[in-house]
Structure formats: C-alpha cells, structure tokens
Amino acid sequence: MIRFPFAALGASLLLLQACAFAPGMHMQKKSLIDRDAADNSMVEIVQITPKVIAQEQAVNTRMHIPQVLLDYQPENYRIGANDALFITVWDHPELTVPGGPQQPAEANSRVVRSDGTLYYPFLGNVQVEGLELEQLRQLVADRLARVIEQPQVDVNVIGFNSQKIVVSGAFNTRGYLPITAEPLTLVQAVGMAGIDKARADLSNLTLVRDGVTYTLDYDRLTDRPSNIGEIYLRSGDKLHLALNDSRKIFVMGEVRTPRPLPYSTSRMTLSEVLATVGGPLQETASGREVYVIRGVEDLETQKATVFQLNASSPTAFILADQFEMQPQDVVFVGPAEITRWNRFISQLFPSANIFRTTLTIDEDLRDRSAN
Hints:
Helix 1 runs antiparallel to helix 11. The protein has three domains: 32-47 and 246-337, Outer membrane lipoprotein wza fold like (Roll); 67-74 and 163-241, Roll (Outer membrane lipoprotein wza fold like); 84-159, wza like domain (wza like fold), CATH 3.30.1950. The chain has a six-stranded mixed sheet with strand order 1-15-14-16-12-13. Strands 8-7-11-9-10 form a five-stranded mixed sheet. Strands 3-2-6 form a three-stranded antiparallel sheet. It starts with 5 loop residues before the first helix and ends with a helix. The protein is built from eleven helices and 16 strands. A hairpin with a 2-residue loop joins strand 9 (200-209) and strand 10 (212-216). By secondary structure, it is α+β, with helices and mostly antiparallel strands. Helices cover 31% and strands 25% of the residues.
C-alpha cells in the first residue's frame, strides 16, 4: 500500500509562503534597496536630507556668463547692402518724395545696392556701405550745398535688411531677426522670436559667434538676478534653443499615472514630479520607499546614485519641494508591505488549485488502498 502525503506537502508549502509575507509576522522589514544589496556595488545610496539638498543646490545654481559676451558693446548702426533709406531734404519735395506724397514711404525710399552704392540726384553713385547715418547725412548735405543753399538733410533707415541674426530650435518664429539702429539684446531677441514652451529646453540656449559656441541656462539666468540683460547681439550671431524631446523624467511604481514627463526647465522638484503624476497611491505605496535613480554615462568606472526619501515623515514634503531633479532621472515609488501580501494572495490562487488537486489525488489513493 503506497501512501504519499501530497496534501501535507502542499499545505506545508503554502504555509511557508504565507508566513514569508503575512502581516504581523516578526520579520525584519527591508526596503527594495536592502533586498537588492547584491547589486549595490553599482550604486551609491544617499538619503535625502537638508545637507544633501544644500549640496545639490550649490552645484545646480552655478550660473556663468562668459565675460567675452558681456564685454561686447554695440556701435552706432552702419549702413549695409539692401538697406532701404529715406532721405529728407527740407523744402525740396522733388528730392524727398520723387514718387509723390501720395505714395507710401517705402515707394520713395532709396535701396542700397549689393555693391554698397546708392544713387542720389546731384550726387550720382555714392559708396554708403559702412557709413553711420550721421556720416551719410553730412555727406549728402555737403554735396547738395553745391546746388542748394544751406540744405537741411535727414537720413533714416526704414528697411533694416543688411544685418541679421539667425534664430532656430524651439522658437515660435524661426529664421532671421534684424539688427536695427536700436541695439538688440539677447533677451529682446528671445522675446521677439517667442518660446515654444511645450518643446523648449530652457536650460540649453546656445549663442554662436565667430565660430565659438556659448551655452547659457536661460531658465536660471532669467529667473534670478543676473546680467543676462547686458548681452548684446551683433550681425551674424546664431541663437538656438534646444528641444526637450530627449530630456525626460521617468516616473514608475506605485503612482497614479506612471509615465515619462518632459523636462523643459532647469528646475523641477521631486514634489512637482509626484504631483504631476497624481502622487503616490495611498492604498499601495510605501512612504519609506520613494527613490530618485540618477544614472551615469559609464557604470564600469562610476556609480549611479539612488536618492531615498522617507515620505512617511512630515518633513518629507519640505525636502521633496527642495530636491531638484535632473534630466533622465527615474522616480520609483515602492509598494507597501500589505501590497506585497495582497499581490502574493492574487498569485496564490493557482497554487490553491494545485492544493485542491493534491487533496483529490490523496483521497483517491486512500480509497484504492482501502479496496
């Protein structure tokens, strides 16, 4: 007679599994990081404290504007090819508005040729490229004095077409912006082009001048007192505002809507990230297990950093609101102990079916042995 204790074996296995996860059992609670201690050689675990936040902010708030950009001071506007000039000779409408006063100013303007010359009555072809407006005014007045007694002359540019800067990237208006007689600052140029807030990486504005690229954190430099307003642009400069397509923060774990978030500024806090995804799930999340995982380029030579926040403490809200994120950070909210138990129970049903099957087999064997 063969009797194999299938039922006893199945019950024992289920009991052992249940004891491993049951609430109230005297077991040492460990965080996800503790349970994965075998892999901790690749990471450095850092508790989020006021001291850590102060150290991080000291690095993040470094704002530097290259001195060479601040040293440049714009000169008076110099006339260039394709500029449209309006030359006024008082009391001489035949020179001022040869097309007639009914015509718009543009129709009576004088356009500088591509070779830098301009034709004007009684003066002939005059080389005007490179001249300041006052210099051209004086030149016209001196030449007209040969035929007009004490001519009163004024010169204005009504079409600034020779000096431009290039704007590209996450701007609403891309292409060219003119340099006019009024000096143009970098901040003014950004305002004229308009920022595409949905796609812009405000921490990565580049200015290319004479083949040299200067990178500026536009977000921080405009959010706090700085001398960014003293940067003047000159013809040929190129402004590029980077896109945020490749800059994201990934939110995973026990949160309401796990998803990647675009990182468009240089300051996004942990509390803002959690609030954007609906916050940790009160029913399933562990307040002790809020992690910010920050990778490195080469794991063979550097350790990744895992910042841990104990969100069950009231001071955690202050710390989370001060902890600044970086692009490509991963925020992970771990499950609570009861959540692990509930998930075990949900996985137990297949085992329970096996248990019932073992009972049936054991009963059949008993019946057969009795017969």
